[in-house]
UniProtKB/TrEMBL annotation:
Its main location: cytoplasm. SUPFAM superfamilies: P-loop containing nucleoside triphosphate hydrolases. The keyword Ligase does not apply. It comes from Ancylobacter defluvii. Keywords: ATP-binding, Cytoplasm, Kinase, Nucleotide-binding, Transferase. The keyword ATP-binding applies. This is Cytidylate kinase. GO terms for biological process: pyrimidine nucleotide metabolic process. It catalyses: dCMP + ATP = dCDP + ADP; CMP + ATP = CDP + ADP. The gene is cmk.
């Protein structure tokens, strides 16, 4: 069983994906970490974001087993990830890795921005998780400020809006809700309610509870 979960930044898709993976005992891949890892390497090496061959090379050499989620969840890395995700050559370098993960025996849960449309369009379950920009910004602000990052609510909201625009308008695999993806708008839902709704969707689609 492949479960594809898509949505914009800070929508809570990763929380839902991890919960479903634990519930059904499936491997989970946060595909956003792949782009964050490439972005982090670009920043660490001082590379130019216009150096497409170098960035594609970083993506091709990425090891999915060595992704440090906590280290990759800073604001600057998130911004860098959004920029490298616009580059078609980087996305292409990561597609096979993601598809292989999705199609492993038994299935998997993947979350990102193009799982249901590009990576695993054959997924048995597709969910699009979203929330208002203001709600997503509030969540991201709480997360970043708890880590001691020097952010303000307004700067985080501006970053969310900028990333939404970039993700939705890029030429390569833009953020889109698959036509057969079920929507969870959790603007007014807490974490447990979002997870419960996702479990209902899986049960309805597959008969597995």
């Amino acid at each position: 069983m492949i479960i594809a979960i898509d949505g914009p930044a800070a929508s809570g898709k990763g929380t839902v994906a991890r919960a479903l993976a634990a519930h059904f005992r499936l491997p989970h891949l946060d595909t956003g970490l792949l782009y964050r890892a490439v972005g982090a390497e670009v920043l660490a090496r001082g590379l130019d974001f216009s150096d497409v061959p170098a960035l594609a090379g970083l993506a091709a050499a990425l090891d999915v087993q060595n992704l440090d989620g906590e280290a990759l969840r800073t604001g600057p890395v998130g911004e860098a990830a959004s920029r490298v995700a616009e580059i078609a050559e980087v996305r292409q370098a990561l597609i096979d890795l993601q598809r292989d993960f999705a199609r492993q025996p038994g299935g998997a849960v993947l979350d990102g921005r193009d799982i249901g449309t590009v990576i695993a369009p054959e997924a048995e379950v597709k969910i699009f998780v979203t929330a208002s920009p203001e709600a997503r910004a509030a969540r991201r602000y709480a997360e970043l400020s708890a880590r001691g990052e020097p952010v303000t609510p307004q700067s985080v909201l501006e970053d969310i809006l900028k990333r939404d625009q970039r993700d939705s308008s890029r030429a390569a695999a833009p953020l889109l809700r698959a036509v057969d993806a079920e929507l969870i708008d959790n603007t007014e839902l807490d974490k447990q309610a979002s997870i419960a709704r996702a479990l209902e969707i899986v049960a309805r689609r597959t008969g597995r509870g």
